[in-house]
Amino acid sequence: MIASTARWCVLIPCLNEEEAIQSVVQSVLALGAKVIVVDDGSNDRTPEIVAAMPVTLLRHAQRRGKGEALRCGFREALRQGFDAVLTMDGDGQHLAADIPRIVAAAAGHPEHIVIGARLLDRDQQPKGRRRANAVADWGISWACAQPVADTQSGQRWYPRRAMELVDLPAEHFVFEAAILIAASREKKLGVVAVPIASRYHGTFRRSHFAPVRDVTRITTYTIGRVIHYGNIVKSYRRSRAQPLVVDQIGASAPLTTLAPVP
After folding, report:
1. Is residue 42 part of a domain?
2. Rounded mean pLDDT of 65-87?
3. Where are the beta strands (DSSP E) in 33-80?
4. DSSP string spanning 152-166?
5. In a domain, 253, yes or no
6. Are 155 and 87 in contact (CB under 8 A)?
7. Which residue has better confidence, 153 or 253?
8. 125: confidence class by pLDDT, cuts 50, 70, 90
9. Residue 180, CB half-sphere, CA atoms under 13 Å: how many?
10. In the chain, % of residues over pLDDT 90
């Protein structure tokens, strides 16, 4: 069991992950962690596989998008009294082996969101995806008024104050950007990066992320938030610092720390 003063669980949103979901969930259970799985309307064997394991399974009758799957999971985690959730995807690209370092970083940096940032083995990333992620990091960091590494990673630790933003009016993949921005601006939370490996090779199923459609949605939302919060130049300058990074053995190694601006 991973030591932590917070009562936390792992939240796995999934859609048609019958090839990977069993090994993903079992690897998390082996750590002694509680697990909530939200099935977003799968039409394969995913829900049957998950139902056979000792986890909380929530199901959508039809696909409602990743944002609603996360929202559903947050509400259940709050209902069960958890202090935090650690999210990860169900396709095998996120490893349970990285969870102890993320939990350790969260313990060392309370009132922070912790992101499993794909800073290692970056040559595995397709060039187009790497460029798109860099643009997203630039824009979302500006909206957060603090530097954020790998804003598109789905492996994250959300403390309770971030979970309480569950009703943000944002859907699909925009929801994850919305949580980062609102947690930074409205909850005054910091963001920490824990380096993990980029995993793009192997038998992963095709991503549910539609580059043109979803990048457009995220960009439109982010621009709106930059304008909404004002202090545009000041926010941009604060976003250009180096992100707060925790090294691979779990020790704090901040490059620069910045508190979110009001």
Report:
1. yes
2. 97
3. 34-39, 56-59
4. T---EEEEHHHHTTT
5. no
6. yes
7. 153
8. low
9. 34
10. 73
